[in-house]
């Protein structure tokens, strides 16, 4: 079987395309920059591993000072527990006997494990699974405008916290939100009001966890938050540049692609389709940015083809057979498509890491 | 590490979610129905393996009468060659020394291997790689309105065919198109004109290969085509129902998902995000159809969450913790996200197949 993974020392122009590649120096700089910023505002930083899914990168994040990691599914947490991680927050409602059993087994081997809940149904399942001897830390997930999961009001948050605090096998640890971009004010107001309500009930709320990469460098606008979680910042992507979260020089992931066809003067086709870029638009009207060819727009993707419209591309485009570099709209979803990730420094491969938690959704 | 794959005999309601599952009887019926239809019009049928990526399913397709298989990338063809397949068409321009070397090695072990070309650059690379003793079969890819790859006119097709025919190591075998949906008339006209031009040059064109699942059952509207290629028909999906290609009863793939949150009266959240469904819209404005809950719309996806808007859902939605079944917009891309695929009959697991060619894009 063909082995697409290059040896250390291989120049990137000899790598099989399509292939995402990660710039070592930019990753290292992104990790340090975010950590220092969050620390400088007196908050803990908890990276979300969903962006890289690689234990070695999470270790770099902990070495820089992160308090622990954030996983989305138990299956991810299980893999990172196997890799020795001792402080794991799973920001997902865990439901049903099989998953609750796995959660209990996981808690027995992870020093500090916490989860979230946003309904009585979730709390009931957790409460029936854990016992007094080794209670599980639970945070209440709050919807502060992101309109995904989460209780809708501080009153509901406080009521659910009370229910958690009353369960012998659970320990109420705090509140958590994944806010809408630009939602600092709403987050702060939600936290402050919930803490007031909890204080009136005599319930402590040590952790107030805020999140999101687009708002990472606005974390200081939520003074009541004790912790920030972010994933995408580690590689960054086109959506992060648009959000003003980073510059082009902070983009650590590129997709190397080859021009495979020039069927018409205003159209070229690249070999990076939705199996390399995914169809995530994130508000863009095209599927990625081709470096060095301003105005060239990836207007459609099929699984193995990216169709590029050159109507508004001023210069000469790369010829059939040439390699180009594409900045993906969304980096996290690209990580989930490849079994391994190729790292480089100055265009030479430095390491190839297994994407340890690729494909885990359970 | 958690093993998400169920034992044979497991009822589907005990399967870990999110999980795509395939109905054995519907797959078998889809395979036979398409094969009989194409054969009845005197054409060869060549299934595209991109939809399932599973050798065992491709074998079912050959047993039903398919002439061979269609792969999109060499890496897929290598995997199917390893699995013993002897007639493989790769419908992709193959460029660059490393891929051409692999193609040559592949041709040495596949009885009938053919590829496409749509430019002089591609033909030159192939011509420099193959020799008289064992020439490579090459088809000219034609753009008949699909606006992806392909030469633009019958004149260009004939000129490229002449170039292929003149290369000692290549054998011109015919022409191929992946048309726009509903493009039968354009395809027929393109083929007829190209054959006239080739006949005038004394060049035979034994294979005229047409393709696409949306137009599969319109294949008879292209009488000059000798072969039809299709992938999606084997599982079918929401886009195929919309195209009138199949009914709901022909849908072989469903994504089992669990309701994980009901944050507001008009909103629920399922555990099947873009890592289970992908973000492929294919012209829809939502990300899949939830069976049995008409009007419930999956309005946004993040990696692990599907946010469902219930505003227009008349009945009572499933409760937190309950399982639902989602019909994906696009089935092929779902296959690429899971290492294995779970098959069932009447709701009981029959087999779990490795998705042999998952993640191969090279």
From TrEMBL, chains A, B:
Gene Ontology biological-process annotations: D-serine catabolic process
Record-linked Gene3D superfamilies: Alanine racemase, D-serine dehydratase-like domain
Keyword Lyase attributed: yes
Pfam families cross-referenced by the UniProt entry: Ala_racemase_N, D-ser_dehydrat
Keywords, sorted A to Z: Lyase
Domain D-serine dehydratase-like: 252-345
GO molecular function: D-serine ammonia-lyase activity
SMART domains (UniProt xref): D-ser_dehydrat
InterPro entries (alphabetical): Ala_racemase_N, D-amino_acid_metab_enzyme, D-ser_dehydrat-like_dom, D-ser_dehydrat-like_sf, PLP-binding_barrel
Family: Belongs to the DSD1 family.
Cross-referenced PANTHER family: D-SERINE DEHYDRATASE, ZGC:162816-RELATED
UniProt name for this protein: D-serine deaminase-like pyridoxal phosphate-dependent protein
Record organism: Mycoplana azooxidifex
């Amino acid at each position: 079987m063909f082995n697409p993974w290059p040896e250390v020392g291989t120049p990137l122009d000899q790598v099989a395309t399509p292939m995402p590649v990660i710039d070592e120096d930019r990753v290292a700089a992104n990790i340090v920059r975010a950590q220092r910023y969050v620390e400088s505002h007196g908050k803990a930083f908890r990276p979300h591993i969903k962006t890289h899914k690689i234990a070695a990168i999470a270790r770099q994040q902990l070495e820089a000072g992160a308090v622990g990691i954030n996983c989305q599914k138990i299956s991810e947490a299980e893999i990172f527990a196997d890799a020795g991680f001792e402080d794991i927050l799973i920001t997902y409602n865990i439901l049903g006997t099989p998953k609750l059993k796995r959660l209990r087994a996981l808690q027995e081997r992870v020093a500090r494990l916490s989860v979230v809940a946003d309904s009585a149904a979730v709390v009931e399942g957790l409460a029936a699974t854990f016992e007094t001897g080794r209670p599980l830390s639970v945070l209440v997930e709050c919807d502060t405008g992101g309109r995904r999961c989460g209780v809708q009001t501080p009153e509901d948050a406080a009521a659910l916290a009370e229910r958690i605090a009353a369960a012998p096998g659970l320990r109420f640890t705090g509140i958590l939100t994944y806010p809408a971009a630009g939602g600092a004010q709403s987050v702060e107001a939600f936290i402050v009001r919930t803490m007031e309500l909890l204080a009136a009930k005599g319930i402590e709320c040590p952790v107030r966890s805020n999140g999101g990469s687009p708002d990472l460098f606005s974390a200081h606008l939520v003074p009541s938050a004790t912790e920030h979680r972010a994933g995408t910042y580690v590689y960054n992507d086109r959506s992060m540049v648009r959000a003003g979260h980073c510059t082009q020089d902070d983009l650590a992931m590129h997709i190397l692609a080859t021009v495979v066809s020039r069927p018409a003067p205003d159209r070229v086709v690249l070999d990076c389709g939705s199996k390399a870029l995914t169809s995530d638009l994130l508000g863009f009207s095209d599927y990625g940015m081709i470096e060095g060819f301003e105005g060239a727009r990836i207007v459609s993707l099929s699984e193995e083809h990216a169709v590029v419209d050159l109507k508004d591309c001023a210069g000469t485009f790369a010829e059939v057979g040439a390699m180009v570099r594409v900045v993906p709209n969304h980096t996290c979803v690209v990580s989930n498509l490849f079994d391994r990730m190729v790292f480089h420094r100055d265009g030479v491969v430095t390491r190839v890491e297994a994407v340890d938690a690729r494909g885990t959704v359970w």
